[in-house]
Write a structure and sequence with these properties.
Elements (H helix, E strand, L loop, with lengths): L16 E4 L2 E4 L3 H12 L4 E5 L3 H6 L5 E3 H9 L5 H4 L3 E2 L2 E5 L2 E5 L1 H5 L3 E3 L2 H15 L3 E4 L2 E6 L7 E5 L6 E5 L2 E4 L6 H8 L3 E17 L7 E5 L5 E5 L5 E7 L10 H11 L12 E16 L2 E2 L2 E3 L5 E2 L7 H22 L3 H4 L1 H24 L6 H16 L1 H11 L7
Parallel strand pairs: 1-12, 2-3, 2-13, 3-9, 6-15, 13-20
Antiparallel strand pairs: 4-8, 5-8, 6-7, 10-11, 11-12, 14-17, 14-18, 15-16, 16-17, 18-21, 19-20
Helix pairs in contact: 1-6, 1-9, 9-11, 11-12, 12-13
């Protein structure tokens, strides 16, 4: 077999151990694990490769809001456990501007809600279902992952087994690239002509986890001339906070007292409950940007999740898009193996990208509300205030926006 990038024969490497399966899934995040579970349940052989340890992916804090249509999609396929189905649900959020509270009741307007379920809990559920419950083939801690022959009828994925040090190669029918922005799958796609379309917001967000109970029953966005801030419940004992900061800033510039001083200021409002403060157990700076890889398919390689697109956490869309990709790709693979029908596989990229671009557009729209007041530009600040008033005071406008916020209208 010839390497698609270098031309090196995989089997030519001395000591390579060969295997064969139907689908190799690279990356055990929400997309890869969902896909693996659905293929296993559908009787399709697959191998799941992950460079990190199981313990790491089960503890890595990431996104926490799932849109109801995604939860129902997982539920129909038997992948929504009691933890997810019993999770706290939100149907409104609050914006605070110049001391005033503006509530957006998107649940009433759309009939749908968000479920608060941290990504690490969903990942843990999916790993248990695949590896422990179904006996699925997953290899953690693999190294030197490389894709080969993705433009041929017999692609392969090679890697080094961390336990034995052996170099192994798995020949397959398809490769599902679910390994994120820095993984080998996105790189392989761009080497074969895919474009990467990127937008930088010009701001950073300091992402924080605090050992403190939530201070409000809903998500709170603080719009302030000093910068945006946000409060999001993660559990009864832990709260996610965000603070706008310069791009490239260092978490070391944000000691405990400075963080809480800015949060109190930016999230302040008349009659608002004081913040519950606690130890900061995570501090990292996110340079806020979005990107889309288009197309999401080449030959026998199909991307899903952050390998294909990133939506900055402005409107809590990222994990929802990843799971949508996985559900669509699983259905497409199952149609291929069960019926020999490749229509869904051939249209996979186009189908996914419709929702991806809708979410990107809505993300941009909301971003102007969040960042306009701190832009230093009175025009942008005025536009942000006008958008906020329209969202929260006009039932007609609010209903249209609620469908996009919760994802129920994103395919139109």
């Amino acid at each position: 077999m010839i390497d698609g990038a270098s031309g090196e024969s995989v089997e030519a490497r001395a000591g390579t151990v060969g295997e064969r399966t139907g689908v190799v899934i690279v990356g055990a995040g929400p997309a890869g694990l969902t896909l693996a579970n659905l293929l296993r349940a559908g009787g399709v052989d697959c191998v799941l490769l992950e460079t990190e340890s199981r313990e790491f992916i089960e503890q890595r804090p990431r996104a926490g809001f799932l849109e109801e249509w995604v939860v129902r999609g997982l539920e129909r396929r038997g992948l929504a456990g009691p933890g997810l189905l019993g999770a706290q649900a939100h149907g409104d959020c609050e914006f605070r501007l110049e001391g005033e509270q503006h509530v957006f009741r998107y649940g009433e307007l759309s009939g749908h809600r968000h479920f608060v379920y941290p990504q690490q809990l969903l990942v843990t559920d999916l790993v248990r279902a695949y590896a422990d419950g179904a006996g699925g083939d997953v290899r953690f801690g693999v190294r030197d992952v490389a894709l080969h022959g993705i433009g041929t009828d017999a692609p392969a994925v090679s890697f080094t087994d961390p336990r034995t040090g052996q170099h192994r190669s798995v020949t397959c029918d398809f490769v599902a690239g679910c390994d994120g922005a820095r993984g080998v799958s996105r790189k392989a796609m761009t080497e074969h002509g895919a474009g990467v379309f990127r937008h930088d917001f010009g701001v950073g967000w300091l992402a924080l986890l605090a050992e403190a109970p939530p201070s409000a029953q809903r998500v709170v966005f603080g719009l302030h001339s000093r910068g945006f801030a946000a409060h999001m419940a993660r559990s009864p004992e832990v709260t996610r906070y965000y603070l706008e900061c310069p791009p490239g800033d260092s978490p070391e510039n944000w000691p405990h007292e400075r963080v809480w001083s800015e949060l109190r200021l930016r999230l302040g409002a008349h009659d608002a409950t004081p913040l519950n403060e606690g130890a900061l157990i995570e501090r990292r700076v996110l340079d806020m940007h979005n990107y889309v890889v288009e197309p999401m398919s080449y030959g026998r390689l199909h991307l899903a999740g952050d390998a294909a697109h990133l939506v900055a956490p402005v409107a809590a869309k990222g994990m929802n898009l990843a799971l949508n990709d996985a559900l669509l790709l699983a259905d497409a693979f199952l149609a291929h193996y069960a019926d020999g029908d490749d229509g869904a596989l051939n249209g996979y990229s186009e189908t996914c990208l419709r929702r991806v671009w809708q979410y990107q557009e809505f993300n941009q729209w909301v971003s102007e509300i969040l960042h306009g007041p701190s832009s230093g530009d009175p025009f942008r600040a005025g536009v942000a205030a006008a958008r906020l008033r329209r969202m929260t005071r006009s039932e007609r406008a609010g209903t249209a926006l609620a469908g996009l916020y919760i994802g129920s209208d994103a395919d139109h």
